[in-house]
Amino acid sequence: MSGFGALFKKEILEQLRTHRLLVVAGIFLFFGLATPLLLKYLPQIIQLSGEQVPVEIPAPTSPQSLAEFAGTIGQLGILMAVLVAMGMVANELRQGTAVMTLSKPVSRAAFVWAKLAAVSITFVVSLALASLFCFGYTVWLIGPTTALPFLQLNLLLALFLVFCLSVTVFFSSFFKSSLPAGGLAIAVLIAQAVLGTVPGLGNFLPARLLSWGTDLVNGRETTYWGAIAVTAVLVILCAYLAQRTLKNKEF
Questions:
Q1: How far apart are CA 103 and CA 164, in angstroms?
Q2: What's phi and psi for 205, nearest 5 deg?
Q3: Is residue 108 within 8 Å of residue 246, measured between CB atoms?
Q4: Segment 64-74 mean pLDDT
Q5: Could you tell me if 54 and 20 are in contact, meaning their C-beta atoms sit under 8 angstroms apart?
Q6: Lowest mean pLDDT among 101-110, 157-166, 172-181
Q7: DSSP H helical segments within the chain, as ranges?
Q8: CA gap 36, 46 in Å, rounded
Q9: Which of residues 99 and 80 earns the better pLDDT score?
Q10: CA torsion through residues 67, 133, 160, 147, sign
């Protein structure tokens, strides 16, 4: 992948210059702080609103807080990944900057992988920051819990987010407009989530990573190594197909 280093540095600077890291980190951090706070003070919030709840709300648990955070980031992460990555290649194709870049001694593989690696770092760093605050606030407000299962959950969640980004970058290489790229990416990600509910098949799809992580923080010993393998293969496949798509385009 000739030229990867220079392209990767350029893409990292682009993440900072366009404030993508700041925006993604800010949104993730908001939910990292809000989840334990909302669970802790939900009964008081309901009382202040004047609503009458027919059943007593049970006291929140630390695993519940961590699982709620992961579920929120998992759902929000799909939308964020599509919005952030859908124009990464498409916009450069439309503006002509991709032609200028690829006319230099750099490979199309380096072009795609540099973009995917840089935006993946943005999401992983944002997730790590939000997770640290969520864990700290959960322990402080709700009660102590074990850190290792939450770390494992975040590793699975990070891989799932990278998968969402790779799908979006793949479709972004097809078009000179980010809208169809984003639309197709959303459709595919929703489709795999629906297929993830199919018994047997779902155990090998990326959506299973989220439920596996939730099981871990809730103390249930389940393993879906097939889902990790399939997700990793899909990430590599999406990047490969994206570079093949660029090779077949006429610049």
A1: 29
A2: -110, 155
A3: yes
A4: 92
A5: no
A6: 101-110
A7: 4-17, 20-49, 62-85, 90-95, 97-102, 108-141, 147-172, 178-195, 208-217, 225-248
A8: 16
A9: 80
A10: negative
Task: Give the integer Cα–Cα distance in Å for 224 and 221.
Answer: 10
pLDDT above 80 for 17? yes
**Whether residue 55 has pLDDT greater than 70:** no
Query: Which residues have a Cβ under 8 Å from the Cβ of 58 and sit 6 or more positions away?
Result: none
Segments making up each domain of the chain, as ranges: 4-248
Closest among 195, 173, 145, 142 to 242, alpha carbons compared: 173
Q: Cα–Cα distance between 182 and 189 in angstroms, integer?
A: 10
Q: What is the spatial distance between Cα 215 and Cα 230, in angstroms, rounded to a whole number?
A: 20
| Spatial separation of the C-alpha atoms in residues 133 and 171, rounded to whole Å | 34
Asked whether the beta carbons of 210 and 157 are under 8 A apart, the reply is yes
Instruction: State which amino acid sits at residue 143.
Output: G
Q: Nearest to residue 168, comparing CAs of 207, 108, 120?
A: 120
Mapped onto helix, strand or coil, the DSSP state of residue 3 is coil
Residue 130 has pLDDT above 90, yes or no: yes
Residues 176-203 pLDDT 10s: 888 999 999 999 999 998 888 888 888 8
Q: Distance from CA of residue 153 to its chain's centroid?
A: 13
Cα 86–89–91 angle (5° rounding)? 80
Q: What is the DSSP string of 44-70?
A: HHHHHHTPPPSSPPPPP-HHHHHHHHH
State the Cα–Cα distance between residues 125 and 130, nearest whole angstrom.
9
